[in-house]
Write a structure and sequence with these properties.
By secondary structure, the protein is of the alpha+beta class. The chain has 17 helices and ten strands. It folds into two domains: about 230 residues, no CATH class; about 170 residues, no CATH class.
């Protein structure tokens, strides 16, 4: 039986899948309708039907990227989507105005991007690994497309033209998949049926769709076929994508897009939630055991890239350049522990005119970094990198954070943070 297509989408992504999706981030394309671009053009274009502003497109696709790389689901994406729509005041999008319409539209955006990037990554993998045969497997959906069901078990050589038009997904919501085999015997073990043959008219266009029978209009191309070698090269270059916005890939993204993705990442409700939960895991809250520093499971939490605007402000404060390398804002295990140890005791913090720091406050770091009220140099420790101190007012409180410039590692790493309840966010040791 073929694997559950939703399970395929939500499992930890493989490098080629991430590379296939992020390749599209290099070229964000404004569109009025879903079919403004078609076929192989999708391999290199990032778009959201009806979205014109590049910052808006970057934020929405950035939310998809988080879902892809961090394994969050559709409901998390929906929450981010609502925040993005409100942020940009986007109106007139298909599905707006009703809960049913929003649920449908967000599912289409989310699932289409995840399934097509999965397919593009798989195509690159299958070709790079030298598979000789491909096996079409139906998703076994409750209400199947009869034509797709008829292809279940079909075995064809990888170079057969069928795959250029029929490689799934080949329709809206299609959950079919393909298996690679080195031999006919292996193809049979994977569920292939050597007796199943293509009809003579398999490539004949359906007058209603312009695509072969059984394929939805606009879906008669194998995702990623025009960029398979590029995807493979990007996957090798990027390694294991150690952070959700890996700097070694983002160097290839246009500056304006890169900045938009970074700020959108920090604005997202899902980023704030994930950062808070990560700190809770580090500290062993909610019944979990503290993470040992030598355990290589999310040893740090990225807060996204330093934007060109950020870099200019930091350069001015520190009187030194950050260029040409890109930098990440990072929170490491030790910094989270240190900040909570130093500023997490309620009684002591009250004597300092401060509130005890909590994991929730780490979730506010994105908002602070995107729009600090102040940014100035902080005291530098002997033998350490230069530091900046940032503040941001939240109601009656001021969040204060100190980051250290680690030039060799291309990071601005959190040193400590605290919450001031008075009017002046001055340092209190």
């Amino acid at each position: 039986m073929a694997e559950d297509p939703l399970a395929l989408l939500l499992r930890r992504p493989f490098d080629e899948q991430v590379a296939a999706f992020r390749l599209r981030l290099r070229n964000l394309v404004p569109t009025a309708r879903w079919d403004d671009i078609s076929g192989p053009a999708h391999d290199r274009a990032g778009m959201v039907a009806g979205a014109i502003k590049q910052d808006l497109i970057a934020d929405i696709l950035g939310a998809v990227d988080r879902s892809l790389t961090e394994g969050t689901g559709l409901e998390v994406f929906r929450r981010d989507f609502r925040a993005i729509v409100e942020k940009y005041g986007w109106h007139g999008w298909t599905g707006e105005g009703t809960a049913k319409g929003e649920a449908w539209r967000t599912k289409v955006i989310w699932k289409t991007n995840l399934s097509t990037s999965y397919a593009a990554g798989r195509w690159a993998q299958l070709n790079a690994k030298g598979f000789k045969f491909l096996v079409y497997r139906h998703s076994h959906a409750e209400h199947p497309r009869l034509q797709h069901l008829a292809w279940d078990g079909l075995i064809l050589p990888i170079e057969h033209p069928f795959w250029r038009t029929h490689f799934p997904p080949n329709g809206w919501g299609c959950g079919c998949s393909v298996r690679g085999a080195m031999s006919m015997a292996m193809a049979i073990r994977l569920g292939g049926d050597p007796a199943k043959k293509l009809p003579s008219d398999w490539a004949m266009p359906d007058p209603r769709t312009g695509a072969p029978k059984g394929i939805d209009r606009g879906w008669d191309h194998a995702p990623g076929t025009t960029v398979a070698n590029t995807i493979t090269a990007l996957a090798e270059k990027a390694g294991k994508w150690p952070t959700s916005l890996a700097t070694n890939f983002m160097q290839e993204v246009p500056t304006a897009t890169r900045d938009a993705i970074a700020t959108g990442y920090r604005d997202a409700p899902s980023t704030a939630d994930a950062t808070r939960r990560w700190v809770e895991r580090v500290m062993g809250e909610r019944g979990g055991a503290p993470i040992s520093p030598d355990v290589l499971v999310e040893p740090q939490r990225t807060l996204g890239l330093v934007t060109t605007h950020d870099a200019a402000a930091i350069e001015q404060a520190l009187a030194r350049p950050l260029k040409p390398a890109l930098y990440d804002y990072i929170v490491e295990h030790g910094a989270a522990r240190h900040a909570l140890a130093e500023h997490g005791a309620p009684e002591l913090e009250r004597t300092r005119g401060q509130r005890a720091l909590t994991a929730y406050d780490f979730g506010r770091l994105g908002a602070l970094l995107n729009a600090p009220d102040t940014l100035e140099p902080a005291d530098q420790k002997p033998g350490r990198g230069p530091r900046i101190l940032l503040t941001k007012r939240f109601g009656e409180e001021t969040l204060v954070a100190v980051f250290e410039l680690l030039a060799g590692r291309r990071r601005l790493s959190l040193v400590t943070m605290w919450v001031k309840t008075g009017a002046s966010p001055t340092f209190t040791p």
